[in-house]
Amino acid sequence: MDVLDKIKQAVDSHPVVIFMKGTPEMPMCGFSSRASQALQACGEEFAYVNVLSDPEVMENLPRFANWPTFPQIYINGELIGGCDITLEMYQNGELEKMVKEAVAAKAGQGDSAAQ
What we know:
- 50% of the residues lie in helices and 15% in strands.
- It contains five helices and four strands; from the N terminus they run H-E-H-E-H-E-E-H-H.
- The chain has helices at 3-13, 30-41, 55-65, 83-91, 94-107; strands at residues 16-20, 47-50, 72-75, 78-81.
- A hairpin with a 2-residue loop joins strand 3 and strand 4 (78-81).
- InterPro entries: Glutaredoxin, GRX_PICOT-like, Monothiol_GRX, Monothiol_GRX-rel, Thioredoxin-like_sf.
- GO terms for molecular function: 2 iron, 2 sulfur cluster binding; disulfide oxidoreductase activity; metal ion binding.
- Keywords: 2Fe-2S, Iron, Iron-sulfur, Metal-binding, Redox-active center.
């Protein structure tokens, strides 16, 4: 499998995925740490890819989304952004709403309380 296909598969098969340095339990950079903490605070499970353990993904991910830095957060297959955007969205309540909607939609249940 081509590395870009591998990245696309990770993005498409998870409602929320973060490409980060390290893991949510053991982040290897401050930006990855803060972004994964914001996702964790949304209260839903999310997938992660440790780019440090997959040099091919680390090398090619910036080309995949035309975004040069890590972490990269994808919700519903779309790049949301990196650490700063993720934290800003978390602080204004947007991130939690998007994460919960993406997880509910992926589960096929929908959220009848959503407006």
